[in-house]
Amino acid sequence: MSSLEELSHRHEDKAKLAESDAVPRGAPILELRGLQKKYGLVEALKPATVTFLAGEIHAIVGENGAGKSTLIKLLTGVIRRTAGEVFWCGRPVQLATPNEAISRGINAVHQEVVLCPHLSVAANMFLGDEMNRFGLMRKSAMERAAQAVLDDLGFQLPAGALLGSLTIGQQQLVATARAAMRGIRFLIFDEPTAYLTRQESAQLFRLIRRLRDQGVTIVYISHRMEEVFELADRVSVLRDGTHVGTRLIGETNENELIALMINRSIEQIYHKETVPPGDVIVETRGLSGPGFEDVSLSVRAGEIVGLYGLIGAGRSEFALGLYGRQPISAGEIRWDGKKVVIPNERAAMDLGIALAPESRRDQGLCLNLPIGLNINLPVYRRLSSGLVIRKGDEAENADRQIRDLRIKTPSRRVLASAMSGGNQQKIVIGKWLSHGARLFIFDEPTVGVDVGTKAEIYRLFGELLKQGAGIILISSYLPEVYELSDRLHVFRGGRLVASHNHRAASHEDVLTQAIGI
Amino acid sequence: MSVETTTESAPAPRKGTNILLGLTLLGLLLALWLALGLSTAAFWTPNNISNLLRQGAMTAILAVGQTFVIITAGIDLSVGAIVGFTSVIIAWLLQAGVPLWASILLTLLIGVAIGAFHGFGIVRMGLPPFIITLATLTSLRGIGLLITNGSTISISHEGFTNFSRADFLGVPSLFWMVILVAIPAFVFLHLSRFGRYLFAVGSNGEAARLSGVNVNRTIYLAYILSATCAALVGVLLASRIGIGNATQAEGWELQAIASSVIGGTSLFGAVGSVHGPLLGAFILATINNGANLLNVNSFWQRIITGLLIIVIVYFDQLRRRGSR
Hints:
heterodimer; A: alpha/beta; Rossmann fold; 3 domains; B: ABC transporter involved in vitamin B12 uptake, BtuC; two-stranded antiparallel ribbon
C-alpha cells in the first residue's frame, strides 16, 4: 500500500463513512436534478440535470459567466440552491454548508492557493488534521509522512520547506496532495493548470489519473481544450447558465465542444489580422536587469512580437524592465530610434507604453475597489480639472470601456472582485485602451479566460495593430503565441535563445528551445 | 455571444452601502441625543451643546487625518503625541515673542515635517507604519518633556486663548475648525484624483504603481496630512487649555482610530470616507458627555466606548458580508 493510500485511509476511518455510501465504480455517485441558482432575477444556473459517476474524470467547460463557478459553489456548499434536488450515493442531500460537503468527501482545489505561506509544506498538508501524541504535535513524523506522500506522487518537493518559498505552481501541487490524502471521494479542480509549468501540469495529471483509479470522482474545470481531451472521460458543456450537453470524450471533438460553448468555429478564434508593418517603435539592445540578460529585440508598428518560454524564463521581468518597474543594469532602449531612459512607470506611460501585467490579482487590479475606478486609474490626470475630477467624464470613460469591451456588469460601481476571470482581464485591458499607447505589452492575457473572451481579446489585438500600435505578447500557451506572433522570441533562463518568423518553426522546435533539452 | 446574463453574483453597488452606513451612524447620533435629552434636562442646554461640539471637534479633526492613512492600509499611532508636542511648540514660540500667525504656521510646518518623516521611514527605510509611528509617539513625548523640562509652558496671549472659547454665529469656533478641515478633506478624498490614488494604494499598491500612480508620493501625502491635522489640533488644544504640555492628549490616537473605524473605515485599507469619522468622533463625544451628565463613573465610559466599537464594527462586517 502506498503512503498516500495509507494516509487517506487514516482519514476515512475518522470520517466514519457509512457502509451504505459505498458506490461501485461507474455507478452514479452524485446526481443533480433540475439544480437551479438565482441571484434576485438573474438566473446564474438554469435547472441542470447532470450525473457524476464514481471513478470518472468529468470535465466541465464553458465560457466565463456560463455558470461553472456557480455549479462548484453549489457542490461545495458555499452557496445554497434555489431549486432542484441533489442525490449523493442515491440519497437526497442538502449540501447547505461547506462542512457538510467536506464531511461527505466532496472537496475542491481552487485556482488560487488558499494555504499558509509561512508554514512548512508538511504543516500545510496536515493543517487542521495534525498528528498528535499526548497533545503535542509530532512534527518530524508529519514531515516524514508528508515527504513520503510527495515522493510517492513524484512531486520532488521538500516537505520541510516553507510553502511561501515555492512557486505558485508548486503550491498548487501541495494543495492537491493535501486534498488527496484526506480520504476524498469527489474532488473538483478549478482551472488547476493556469499557473503551472508543463512539467508541473504533467505531475498533476498523473495524480489526477491515480486518484481516479482509486475510485475518486474528479470534476475538472478548464479552458484548455487539449487538457480536457487528454484527461477527461466525459465532458459537460455549460453556456449562459444552461447545461447544453454531456458527451463521452471519445464521441466528441474540439470543434463540437466549442460549437456547443459559443456557436463559433475554432478558425475564428486565432484570427490574425495582417497589417503591413511600419517603423520600429521600440528597440532594446543588450538590455539586462533583474531576471533577464542581454535581450535585444525590436517591435514595429502593426506587428505582434511574441515572447514564449516557461514561467520564470525572464519574459515578464524583461517587460517590467522595459516598463520602468525594474532597474536596468546594462544595455539601452531606443524609442523611435532615439535612446531613452525609463526611470519609472509614469515615464513609460508618457512615452506610450502600456502594460497589462501577468497577475490580475497581484498586479493588475485593485480588487476591492469599483470597476470604474480601476478603469480610470491611469487616466485620472486627464479626467481632472485642476485638483477636482470631472464626475461626468469619469463615469462616461468607465462606461464606454465597459460597453466597448462588453464587460458583464450591471454597473461600474460593482467591485472588481465580483467579476469572473475574463471580465477582470477586460477591466485591465480597458484601463490601457482608455489611456492609449503605441506599444502594448500583454503578459499572459488569456490565463483563466474562456474561449469567447479569448477571441474577443485577439480581435482587439487586430484593432490595435490597425491603429498603428505594436504589441508584445507574452504567453506560456504555445498555440496562442505561435498563431498570433509576427515574430516569436523564445526565452530560457533569462536570455533570448531563439527567434522565428510567423509559423517558421514547428511547435516541437519552439518547445525544445524553451525547455533547453 | 449572448451577453444577457450578467455576472455570477451582483453585489450591491458600493456607493449605496456607503450612504447607508452614513445614515445609520447619523441615526445613532440623533437617537443618542434624543435619549439624553429625555433623560437629563442638562443635555439640551446651549452651554452643554457648545461643550459637546468643542469636545468632539478635536477628535473629529484627528480622525479625518487618521482616515487618510488608514485608507492606504496604514496606521498613525503618533497623532496623540503630536498634539501634545505641538502644544508645547506653539506655547514656546509665543513665549519667545514670535507673532501669532508665524507661530501657528511654524507649528503646522512641524506637523508637515513629522508626517514627512513617517513617509520617509515607510517608503525609504521600509519600516511598517505601526513601528515608525509608534517610535515617534514615544520620542515626541520625550522631546516635548525635554523642552519644557517636564513642566508646562503657560500662554499669556489673550487673543489666542480666547479663540477656543469664542462663538461665531452661535457655534463654537472650534466646531468651525472641523468644518474648515472637513470640506477640503471631502474634496480631496472624494472629488480629487489624489483621493482615488489613496484608495488604489490601499487596495493594491503594485497595481496602482503599474497604472502610473506615484505610490511613494501618495504615502507621503497621507502621513503628512494626518500629522498636519494633529498639529492643528495641538494648536487648538493649546488655545483651549492655555498651556503647552507634552503629556496632554494621552490616548487620543486611539480615540481617533476608534472614531475612524466606527465611521466605517476598514483597517485593511481602501474603504473609508470623510463624513464617517466625523460622525464617529461626535458619537464618542456624545457618549462621554452623556455619561458625565448622568453621573456615570468615568471608568464606565471607557468600557462603553470599547463595547460600542465592537458592536458597530461587527454590524458593519455583517452588512458587508450580506452584500457579497
